[in-house]
Design a protein that fits this description.
Helix 1 packs across helix 2, helix 2 crosses helix 3 and helix 8 packs across helix 9. The protein is globular and about 40 Å long. It has two domains: 114 residues, Rna Polymerase Sigma Factor, Chain: A (Orthogonal Bundle); 65 residues, Arc Repressor Mutant, subunit A. By secondary structure, it is mainly α. The longest helix is centred in the first third of the chain and has 25 residues.
Amino acid sequence: MQSTEEEWAKMMRAAISGDALAYKHFLEAVTPALRALAQSNLARCGAGNSEVEDVVQETLLAIHLKRHTWDPERPIRPWILAIARHKFIDMLRRKGRRAEDVIEDFDALPDTGQAPDSLDRHELNRMLRKLNERQRDIVRSLAVEGASIRETARRLDMKEATLRVSLHRALAALAALYRKDGR
């Protein structure tokens, strides 16, 4: 796992420096690990696999929106796992499950001391205003309001697969805007 974590950190450092290809590779590299984590956690708490992709997509979105909070001098895996844990808990709460019933099983996911779901609302709103209306609605629904892929697709009268493609395009647009702003 150490070499994987080092690769992830290397890609994220390059991404933070503006390397869009490294960022794409980073997201592609962490997705299978996030999917496996979501599957095992959902199975452990008796939930079905139907929520796996929602948890993965919400985690990737949160990673994207929070990437500026990662300290390049610290290991990246605990930071990623903390975000994943919070997204898993959010999903449980939306489903009416008590997160406290399963949270003690997350000792492999250390608390980083950060609040991964706190977001600079001013910065978020400024960036979202630069997206087209449909992209803004998708990101706001999933990231700000905490709706699931399924709920958002239903509300916007879209297929879930189409929504995921639109989400990825919106994230790419946000990444481009972020780089353009000199971040």
